[in-house]
Amino acid sequence: MAYGNKVKFHYDVPVYIKQMLAETAKRLNMTATELLSRTIEEEYMRVKAEKESK
User: Fold this and answer.
1) Which DSSP helix (H) or strand (E) runs through 3?
2) In this predicted model, what pLDDT tens digit does every residue of 8-29 receive, in sequence order?
């Protein structure tokens, strides 16, 4: 669920996904929420660029 520019984990996000996000975020010195937001933004930009190039 989104609250402003923050992403909150919803109950249906699998535990193993939350754990992977937390571990990766820790290695990158960021929060899991920041990592998830960055990943979503990057994927959105990739899909948008792909659609524009067609």
Assistant:
1) strand 2-3
2) 655 677 888 889 989 999 999 9
